[in-house]
Amino acid sequence: MSISILLGDDHAILRQGLRLLLEAEPDFAIVGEASTGVEVMRKIEMLHPDVVVLDVGIPDLNGLEITRQIHQRHQHTRVVILSMHAKEAYVLEALKNGASAYVLKGSDTNELIQAIRQSLQGVRYLSPPLSERAIEAYLEMIEDRGLDPYDTLTNREREIMHLVLESHSNAEIASRLTISPRTVEVHRARMMHKLGLNSQVELVRFAMQRGLIPAEE
Known about the structure:
Elements: E1 3-8, H1 12-22, E2 28-34, H2 37-47, E3 51-55, H3 63-73, E4 78-83, H4 88-96, E5 101-104, H5 109-120, E6 125-126, H6 132-144, H7 155-165, H8 170-177, H9 181-195, H10 200-209
Parallel strand pairs: 1-2, 1-3, 3-4, 4-5, 5-6
Helix pairs in contact: 2-3, 3-4, 4-6, 7-9, 8-9
């Protein structure tokens, strides 16, 4: 029985390379590709893949938010995150959102293959040199803090947050989500209120601290 895989990355060359590498496995079948987060969610609805191999930095809802939505709405689909970021903040957010594996982009192909296979067996895979013990300690620490304001955001508020972080205007966000600019303003205001933030600068700082966007070097 073949393992159906959806590739989510905004770089066509990388998707083509992944397709060639993964289809060399006799039981792997690439059933689709997507270049944006919105497209990933649409194709999951259509194709119901076993696994999504997902770039954490994919535009229009980044990989971490997509992972959370997949975990909520398509629990049969496993998410294998591909990332260039080895910082534990990114790994922690991915695991909290339901990722089954976190693979660094500089890893050997065999690591990605192993991550896909282990995810389907219910075994979490972390690309070396990521520390499973340290990440478990972080997860326990977060749980002890109680309710996270970020967890109180609705799906729409999260979508708007990530598009704001990509520097899209209210009008652009409204067009992408097919809602009115006024609706965007309302959701945006509620999102900022729930997070206790007052400016774009504070929102960017919050996102960096949470590993939602790359921190400045």
